[in-house]
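User: Just a sanity check before I run the rest of the batch. Below are the structure tokens for the first item. I only need the designed sequence back.
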């Protein structure tokens, strides 16, 4: 049985192949289909593999899981040997991962099922977009204040309010441009425009339909949106 440590980056990965007699070899592969195929060709069915948890770890996991006996996801921030290393290189990290995998001393991260991973990605993206919308509202308010225009929270929170701001005159050229860029990204309202009867949904509401089954991540996003409204 071999123990393999993988240091994974955005466009390549470095692997240390640690043999039973503690001899090892290190190789670097591009993170492209050809590089992954070349790496899988060097794997054995009884190998154990350790890789640092990161943004593309789940993708890498799916590419190599069937070719080895076990894939261990490592919580790098809890692994002081790497987190506090003064000689942090891809090669050194891969060797350290392989050696500590063999010793059974790596802090592991549980691999969630695919549906949970999708939910996490969606909720993380939603949080980021909501924060961006709030920041852009602040940018819009600031542009109005600089031109002596009093604005209320509701001005950006409704379709009618945004329409009024889009037609507002008397702003300086730069602030007019700033406001025009901010307005389309502040659509977080939900409800019916009484003047036109048009139903307006937030960007996330358009993604999350109430009729989606409970096994669909969009169902849970819609539930969260309804609770927040």
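Assistant: Here's the designed sequence for the first item:
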């Amino acid at each position: 049985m071999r123990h393999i440590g993988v240091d994974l980056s955005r466009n390549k990965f470095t692997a240390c192949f640690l043999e039973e007699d503690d001899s090892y070899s290190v190789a670097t592969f591009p993170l492209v289909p050809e590089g992954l195929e070349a790496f899988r060709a060097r794997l054995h069915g009884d190998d154990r593999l350790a890789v640092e948890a990161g943004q593309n770890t789940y993708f890498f996991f799916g590419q190599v899981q069937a070719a080895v006996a076990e894939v261990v996801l490592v919580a790098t921030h809890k692994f002081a040997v790497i987190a506090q290393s003064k000689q942090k290189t891809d090669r050194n990290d891969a060797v350290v991962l392989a050696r500590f995998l063999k010793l059974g001393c790596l802090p592991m991260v549980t691999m969630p099922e695919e549906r949970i991973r999708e939910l996490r990605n969606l909720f993380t993206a939603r949080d980021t977009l909501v924060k961006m919308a709030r920041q852009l509202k602040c940018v819009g308010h600031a542009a109005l204040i600089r031109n002596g225009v009093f604005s209320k929270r509701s001005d950006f929170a409704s379709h009618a309010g945004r329409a009024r701001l889009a037609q507002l005159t008397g702003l300086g050229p730069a602030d007019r441009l700033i406001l025009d860029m901010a307005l389309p990204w502040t659509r977080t309202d939900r409800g019916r425009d009484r003047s036109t009867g048009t139903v307006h949904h937030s960007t996330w509401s358009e993604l999350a339909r109430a009729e989606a089954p409970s096994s669909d991540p969009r169902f849970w996003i819609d539930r969260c949106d309804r609770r927040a409204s």
